[in-house]
Amino acid sequence: MDCRYCHNGVETSSLAGLPATEVCMTCHSQLFTNADMLAPVRASLASGKPIEWQRVNTVPDFVFFNHAIHIDKGIACETCHGEVDQMPLTMRAHTLSMEWCLGCHRNPGPNLRPPKDVFLMHWRPPADIDEIRRQLIGMLDIHPETMTDCYVCHR
Ligand code: HEC
Ligand code: HEC
Ligand code: HEC
Ligand code: HEC
Ligand code: HEC
User: Fold this and answer.
1) How much distance in Å is there from the Cα of 72 to the middle of ligand 2?
2) Which residues form the signal peptide (predicted)?
3) Is 57 a pocket residue for ligand 4 (Cβ < 6 Å)?
């Protein structure tokens, strides 16, 4: 399934967002309607109380982060979150520490993809990827020379 079906803020807002119970029920009112694993989803629908998903990725309040800009500039979900489609329980794939952010902000080139491919899992770069990445820096208007300034992430 496309990530945006459930995380529908990811292209337009700072938050990716988590799906409402009704999103699950578009399919599960017909599929696996009695599965034990889906009991909390049925209970949530019946009571109108949202499911309390356990967050695994967070940065402190004093850090400014925005999903939409990364998606626009060719950084994939997989690059920051790992292969979530292979995780029986969602877990944090990277530290999300300042050093981790800076590691990419100092030199984003090797992490870029054509923006149309950012939602793909298990992406394999084409043979001419180095040339594509050189072009993307210009086409996407990326400025590594200012990306490590403190105010970018602390406003
Ligand atoms: C059917 C709906 C659905 C789809 C499709 C979906 N997700 Fe999720 N995702 C969820 C739900 C519900 C959670 C919260 C439960 C959990 O963490 O396991 C979640 C959690 C996550 C988290 C962890 C959030 C956190 O910090 O706690 C990440 C990262 C994530 N999804 C990425 C993705 C990516 C990338 C894709 C596309 C490849 C995707 N998801 C597709 C429903 C979905
Ligand atoms: C577009 C349709 C669709 C949506 C929306 C959807 N699912 Fe599913 N779900 C499926 C399908 C299809 C399967 C069976 C997959 C398989 O057997 O490989 C499944 C399987 C499951 C299972 C495993 C059931 C079992 O007993 O093995 C769980 C749990 C589940 N979904 C939870 C959720 C939750 C929670 C949401 C909302 C965040 C959700 N699903 C949204 C289609 C959907
Ligand atoms: C540049 C790295 C990066 C990329 C790319 C990225 N994320 Fe995230 N994601 C984060 C960070 C950092 C957080 C924690 C944000 C916070 O605490 O405000 C997060 C949090 C989340 C969450 C938890 C809920 C929320 O809204 O914060 C979900 C779900 C999620 N990401 C899904 C995705 C999906 C789907 C994609 C691809 C379309 C994606 N992310 C791309 C770094 C990234
Ligand atoms: C894998 C690469 C990568 C990682 C990891 C990453 N970023 Fe970025 N980030 C980028 C790129 C590329 C841009 C776009 C820069 C530009 O347009 O010049 C960007 C832009 C931003 C911007 C917007 C700057 C503006 O112009 O307003 C913020 C804020 C930001 N990142 C915060 C973070 C934080 C916080 C983290 C760590 C939690 C992080 N990023 C991790 C690649 C990354
Ligand atoms: C690309 C994003 C990014 C940039 C640029 C950045 N930081 Fe940070 N910074 C972070 C993140 C993410 C954290 C939170 C780390 C954590 O939770 O461990 C952080 C944490 C901090 C902290 C708290 C450290 C602690 O131990 O609690 C300080 C102080 C700080 N940054 C100062 C700076 C200064 C000064 C600059 C400029 C020289 C800077 N940062 C540039 C992302 C960034």
Assistant:
1) 29
2) none
3) no
